[in-house]
């Protein structure tokens, strides 16, 4: 019985309801507010080491084999992450997102939120950085 409660609790932790609601309405101001005030679910190629709080893991990005362009996929809820992506996820803060986008702004061409639905949204890294700075 305890295992079921723990699994349910963990799935509840890996989401940002405010971001999901903003994506549903496609309201960019609400998306920006949700990003500034809540976490974002980030897919990981390699999860961080539990014993090292500074190790956040290796973020998974998609590189188009034809163009070489890189996309960052972010999610409002871990349940929206397609099964074809690596299984690991992290819940990252607005500060982390801003730092990551600022560091890799030149390499990342686009950012997709909930790419497989239910309410996908695409944005430029520069626009998200600006939204996080307000």
UniProtKB/TrEMBL annotation:
Origin superkingdom: Bacteria
Designated name of the protein: Dehydrogenase
Native source organism of the sequence: Microbacterium thalassium
């Amino acid at each position: 019985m305890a295992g079921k409660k723990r699994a349910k609790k963990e799935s509840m932790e890996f989401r940002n309801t405010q971001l999901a609601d903003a994506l549903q309405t496609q309201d960019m101001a609400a998306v920006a507010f949700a990003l500034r005030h809540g976490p974002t679910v980030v897919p990981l190629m390699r999860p961080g080491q539990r014993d090292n709080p500074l190790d956040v893991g290796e973020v998974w990005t998609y590189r188009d084999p034809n163009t070489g362009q890189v996309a960052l996929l972010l999610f409002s809820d871990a349940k929206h992450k397609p099964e074809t992506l690596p299984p690991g996820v992290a819940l990252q803060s607005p500060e982390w997102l801003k730092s990551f986008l600022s560091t890799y702004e030149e390499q990342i061409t686009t950012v997709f939120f909930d790419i497989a639905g239910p309410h996908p949204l695409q944005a430029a890294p520069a626009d998200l950085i600006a939204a996080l700075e307000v």
